[in-house]
Design brief:
By secondary structure, the protein is of the alpha+beta class. The chain has helices at about 1-20, 75-80, 140-145, and strands at about 35, 40-50, 60-70, 80-95, 100-105, 110-120, 130-135, 150-155, 170-180, 185. It has three helices and ten strands.
């Protein structure tokens, strides 16, 4: 019986504390000035290949291409609210050859709207060479990127020591896009 009375008294005391405690009046007009800043991240491409995968089939030149259709920029909401786009490339090279990655934003006809290059240095002694590149677009450059419908990646093996089936090393590439939006509730 004593336990029930103490529990009841404790519960009543807590309830009275909440009922008679001080509160600050809420100003709901502040919501008129609300800005939301969401960030969306998405993976773009990923690959990992050993050195023999880069042996040129007929000459000393070797390149490989891939393209992604970008539907993200077609959305009116994105067109109106995207304020920044960061494209992140994490590359690791343990092959004794230089590479060049060309990233092209193109329109529906394949015409380039924006291009950037990533120079990937050769490994010395097949030690892993990490490279982190962030390409940021804002303002007029972002306006061009938002008009693109295709994102094309061209990886080119640059001149150097001839690769064979026994050549050691690996090239790996991971990329993502980080898109910052500003939503104004006014």
């Amino acid at each position: 019986m004593i336990t029930i009375k103490r529990t009841f008294k404790t519960s009543l005391s807590i309830l009275l504390l909440f009922v008679f405690s001080c509160t600050e009046p809420t100003d709901f007009s502040q919501s008129e000035d609300l800005e939301l800043l969401p960030v969306v991240e998405t993976s773009l491409i990923f690959f990992e290949e050993d050195a023999p995968a880069f042996i040129p089939p007929t000459s000393d030149d070797f390149s490989v291409s891939d393209r992604i259709e970008i539907e993200f920029f077609n959305d009116e909401f994105v067109q109106d609210n995207l304020i920044r786009a960061d494209f992140v490339f994490d590359i690791e090279n343990s092959i004794n050859r230089d590479f060049r990655l060309t990233v092209t934003f193109a329109d529906a006809l394949g015409m380039p709207l924006e291009i950037f290059f990533v120079e990937v240095p050769a490994s010395t002694g097949n030690q892993n060479v990490p490279l982190n590149i962030i390409q940021t677009y804002e303002g007029e450059a972002l306006d061009r990127v938002k008009q693109s419908l295709v994102l094309q990646f061209d990886l080119e093996l640059l001149s150097g020591e001839t690769l064979t089936e026994d050549s050691p090393g690996t090239l790996s590439l991971r990329s993502s896009g980080i898109f910052s939006l500003m939503i104004d509730t006014n």
